[in-house]
Amino acid sequence: MSHVFPRHTKSALPTIARGEGVYLYDRDGRQYFDGSGGAAVSCLGHGDADVIAAIKHQLDEIAYAHTSFFTSDPAEQLADKLISHAPAGINRVYFVSGGSEAMEAALKLARQYFVETGQPQRRHVIARKQSYHGNTLGALATGGNAWRRAPFAPLMVETTHISACFEYRGKTAEETTLEYGLRVANELETEIQRLGEDKVFAFVAEPVVGATAGAVPAVQGYFKRIREICDQYGVLLILDEVMCGMGRTGTLFASEQEGITPDIVAVAKGLGAGYQPIGAMLCSAKIYEAIEFGSGFFQHGHTYVGHPTACAASLAVLTKLTDGGLVERCAEMGGKLQDALQHAFGQHPNIGDIRGRGLFRGIEIVEDRETKRPFDPARAIHKALKKETFAAGLACYPMGGTVDGQNGDHILLAPPFIMEDHHIDEVVTKLGIAIDKVL
Ligand code: PMP
């Protein structure tokens, strides 16, 4: 009997023994291609000697020191490097231990900014349906998945949700892609006006939606319009790049491809590549200075903020992503993966859409390709796909459709950036075996 809580499945899980490059091995010696890097985490694959050396070195120096007493070289160097690659205007970093913490810090910083600048009436957040921002209470409140929110709804900060920008599901036949993007972006303005023009402190969105919808980028022009609306009403734009950031979509920050700068951006997952738990919240000088020259203190903090060992690991990861050319490699391999998936499954009667950016790809499963009707969620197609892909030696991330039919079952692929051409064939073959069995 296992005493580990929680158990994610009723059946016993294999025990992980080791990892090497793009492969995971369980204790019985079975090999799995790491098709989703866990939850889009392991961008460098497993056993990276440089990252391991950086961690060992840091452990020999000093594993941990509290940030109220000391800063550390790894934290300072990592911050410098992140800022040197961040969108223009972003110039401060706050290191935490994961994605939810980064989003929680983002929300609190945005709220404190308005308290410090004399607008405490701004207490409402607007977010989007079909989104996930984490499981702590603030982050959970902003997430747009009704099932995840339901039990905790009475505990939540004031959040309302506008439509996602999800072309496959949302665009009507009568409108162009551009018109569609503007229509759903303009929902933000309508919602701000409905709530009161000076009541909203932040709008929260994932530039490329991850787990809830399966690698869905917004259409061109959408985020430009969102930025305009936020500026017009003085609302802070918080981008959640926890899953899609750190090179995953082919640029270090996903928002680079939208041509906009957020006020605050959250990253995690690929930032530590799984070697250490780490996340970060980055913000603009405007926000930082309001607090620095106001109360002088961001009213937040955790024991492991700026953890030196986590920062040392992350610095080694970021060096490989940027100086080592892995972000560009991700963009290149991502294009090849998309082509291969399209070639293999593009005409399949139950595959509705294959999408994404970089090595962040989603495959949406439908019962009827013509009408885009999803399978009945009760059939739990995603669970069968998870079982069969795993049996075929591919660990990937199938997710269920929503009960309201907003989206169907989908498979999320987020393999390591070090993957090679022959691995693309392997992924497609193994996926094909599972798809043939289940669909
Ligand atoms: N935001 C997004 C977009 C995510 O995908 C996730 C994790 N799946 C989170 C936030 C929360 O991150 P964590 O699980 O590290 O707390």
Automatic annotation (TrEMBL):
The keyword rRNA processing does not apply. Belongs to the class-III pyridoxal-phosphate-dependent aminotransferase family. Pfam families: Aminotran_3. This is Adenosylmethionine-8-amino-7-oxononanoate aminotransferase. The keyword Transferase applies. Gene3D superfamilies: Aspartate Aminotransferase, domain 1, Type I PLP-dependent aspartate aminotransferase-like (Major domain). PROSITE patterns: AA_TRANSFER_CLASS_3. GO terms for molecular function: transaminase activity. The lineage of its organism: Bacteria, Pseudomonadati, Pseudomonadota, Alphaproteobacteria, Rhodobacterales. Keywords: Aminotransferase, Pyridoxal phosphate, Transferase. Its cofactor is pyridoxal 5'-phosphate. It comes from the Bacteria.
